[in-house]
Amino acid sequence: MRSESEVREQYEFLKDELDSEEMRHEGVRKLMTHYKRALGWVLEEEHM
Length: 48
Hints:
This protein is elongated. It is built from two helices and no strands. By secondary structure, it is an all-alpha fold. The longest helix has 21 residues, at 26-46. It has one domain (2-44). The two termini are 17 Å apart.
């Protein structure tokens, strides 16, 4: 299991990547959005 800081770092990285101009392809954007959402759920569940 990864530490909270590692998961948060990945979450922030993905958030920045989704905002970049290189993420114009819709399929890639959808995939990254789902991954980002899943990481958010993991963070929320660990803090409940």
